[in-house]
Task: inverse folding
């Protein structure tokens, strides 16, 4: 039985999930890497926090962060 392939970076963060049957892959990008700019009112993605998911068809999901007074940056929008 084939399972999903998983790739991790040197920090132990999951960077890719691949399906060997369909030959499709989903890639994950984290703060400190190639994160998109979400827009005004958002802060840079904190180091080690998810900022972008890229799918096998090149479509993307972006995660934007906002600064909160007591807890620092938190997810403010998923696009």
Result:
């Amino acid at each position: 039985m084939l399972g999903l392939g998983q790739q991790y970076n040197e920090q132990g963060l999951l960077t890719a999930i691949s399906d060997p049957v369909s030959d499709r892959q989903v890639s994950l990008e984290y703060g400190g890497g190639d994160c998109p700019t979400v827009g005004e009112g958002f802060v840079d993605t904190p180091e080690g926090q998810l900022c972008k998911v890229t799918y096998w068809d090149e479509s993307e999901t972006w995660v934007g962060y906002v600064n909160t007074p007591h807890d620092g940056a938190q997810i403010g929008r998923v696009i």
